[in-house]
Amino acid sequence: MLACIAVIFGLFHIAAHAADRPGRPERPGKRAEEVKEIVKNFQEQKKAFLKQQKEGQADARSNMREEIGSASKGAREEAKDAIAEAKRVAREQSRKLAEEAKEEAKEGRRRD
After folding, report:
1. The whole model's pTM is what?
2. What SS3 state is found at 111?
3. Could you give the CA distance from residue 78 to residue 85 in angstroms, rounded to a whole number?
């Protein structure tokens, strides 16, 4: 009889613990479809974002190339102008040296 009472109290105790536990999770049917849809949407958004990032980087690269190209074009023009000026100055100095050499040669002949 004591054993029966102990068994009954044990069953009550087990029933109380079972009531405290959360219920069984829902079957994965509807929830799995929702999760799949969420993942699909996320992947599409990620793909669009990455495409946008890539396009932005390509635009930035092309802008930099244009800026560098125009800057180097200006630098090339400046270098060409500087070279032309240096040639002109060199010709002028060469001409002056040649004139001085002629004058010295004339003076040397006059002294003789």
Report:
1. 0.40
2. helix
3. 10
